[in-house]
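Margin note: ligand = adenosine-5'-triphosphate.
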Amino acid sequence: MAEPEKKPSMSFGRYQVVAELGRGSMGVVYKARDPAIGRMVAVKSIPETFALEPGKREEFIRRLRQEAMTAGRLQHPNIVTIFDVGETEAGPYIAMEFLDGVTLREVIGAQKKLSLRQLLEVVRQVGEGLDYAHAKAVIHRDIKPANLMIVQGNRVKIMDLGIARIPFSELTKEGKLVGSPSYMSPEQLQGQKIDGRSDLFSLGVTVYQCMTLKKPFPGENINEICLKIVHGKFQPASELRTDLPPGFDAFMETALAKDPDLRFQKGAEMIQALEKLLEAKPQPAEPTASESVSEGVPPRPPAREDFAVTSNPNLSPTSEIDDIFRDLTTTHRRSLTLGDGRGEETGIGWVVWVLLALGLGLLAAVVLLWNSSH
Ligand SMILES: Nc1ncnc2c1ncn2[C@@H]1O[C@H](COP(=O)(O)OP(=O)(O)OP(=O)(O)O)[C@@H](O)[C@H]1O
Ligand SMILES: [Mg+2]
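Resulting structure:
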């Protein structure tokens, strides 16, 4: 992986860039410092608007501000908070809550499947966040693993809420489509009117992928993917993973029903269905990565408090809850050592160098000893 790109002199309004956090189809996300209150923020820059014609650019920025305002009104522990929206000569930007965590895309990329208990926690928190947003008539439109982040304290945060409504189609480069249709609902792909149930379909696709590491509607190209989502069947998850409880396939069928009326109507319904599945199949006491949730582990009856997540962000979670995502966040720690732009403030880099120096020292000592004995 490339070295983290450090641009110390870069700033967006009053936000001073500290590091690059990641890149998406619409621009770069930076970690930045707000000197006014000494807080770290994440700044999403959208430089490609420069490619737009003047009239369209104005309209784009107007929509961006409008959507940021909508998203800014949402206050929920499972939704990333939007602080600010602004514009520089490099293009517009959105300043938001900085999350130190790991996205589900990174977890999938590290080939880690969620355990059922971890899945319930993800669905519970994302489902609650979505129900809250939908009740305020805000639809996400781009729920996918890259937009769901696990942060400290076992919190799952929904990112980019509302932002997907900005007409990014105008930001397509020649021959390149922004965003991935793999997580979109049939009605969204067909340009029909959508409601919150479309987000729940996208959450269903995410669930399937987090449990099997495969997308339910894979394809070589966009046309094939779209055709499958609108008309095709998906392979039962139980054929891809043996430790799923009976009823998981039926759960997926409801989550991914083509007809929104046949789907889970609310996040709460999806959470309840998953809770029932877990009651049917007790999980081991210690949360583990999927590979270790195997037949050989002695089951224990599920304790309700294991699944109780406080909706009050000020209450610290119980130590058991605090451990649920431990094996997933090591994904993040590993990526820090690879230098994805977050490592520079964590102090992990020097540990690697010290270990390397010790190793070299040991090697030199062995060579010297060998030389002196021969
Ligand atoms: N608030 C945040 N705090 C910390 N990191 C963030 C934050 N928002 C985004 N990131 C990081 O920046 C990366 C890029 O985010 P971005 O939303 O631009 O693209 P994406 O969602 O990964 O993909 P796409 O642009 O195709 O939707 C994310 O994967 C994440 O690692
Ligand atoms: Mg995103």
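The chain has three domains: 12-97, 101-168+177-281+308-328, 338-363.
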